[in-house]
What we know:
Elements: E1 7-12, E2 32-33, E3 36-37, H1 38-48, E4 53-58, H2 62-69, E5 76-81, H3 88-96, E6 105-109, E7 112-116, H4 121-128, E8 136-142, E9 155-157, E10 163-165, E11 174-175, E12 179-182, H5 198-206, E13 210-214, E14 217-221, H6 225-238
Parallel strand pairs: 1-4, 1-6, 4-5, 8-13
Antiparallel strand pairs: 2-3, 6-12, 7-14, 8-11, 8-12, 9-10
Amino acid sequence: MSKPVTRAIILAAGLGTRMRPLTNDRPKPLVQxxxxxxxxxxxxxxxxxxVTTIVVNVHYHADQIKAxxxxxxxxxxxxxxxxxxxxxxxxxxxxxLPHFEGEPFFVHNSDTIWTEGFxxxxxxxxxxxxxxxxxxxxxxxxxxxxMGYEGRGDFxxxxxxxxxxxxxxxxxxxxxxxxxxxxxxxxxxxxxxTFPMMVLWEQAIAQGRLYGIRLDGVWMHxxxxxxxxxxxxxxxxxxxx
Length: 241
């Protein structure tokens, strides 16, 4: 039986260029959706799932994020400052690794929100996590219900949850919504400096240790001003009259 996953990192260091003009004077994690900053949607989910320590990496308008997070008293928040360089998703996590002390942790993008279906997604991913057979467990969203996503799918998923890249010319019914559990050993021998996580996911695929679990709900990728409006309209429709 693996230990509970109680640590997380929220990736909040991006420039938010696709979210302009909303990000002209603020970082994307502080853009509001349905009256709540995107980063607070992520923090609330993680806290509800039993996470007690959250690392937030910062770069663009870092001081604004730090000031906003200082108001949170319900969870320990640590800052991983990347003001000196843009490190990408992989490099940013490598810099924050000492905070996890060798234990598996959640990774959560700051521009992803969802409505729950059957059960709670983070509880389901925790229950499925098995560090003996996997190094990474990605939450996967169905393209049938995904909002704000314009890709052709990100991975193929076998019945047991094992993930593979989408073959050339094929489509996948699943998109990766930016949430997963990872074991720190995945970063052994990782590149120095800036790099994307896909570099390490490719290694995990080759070793048969990249898995996924389906989100039983509606995922909203909130990456543009139009996606903000779409997400808010959908959430408003769900609210009781």
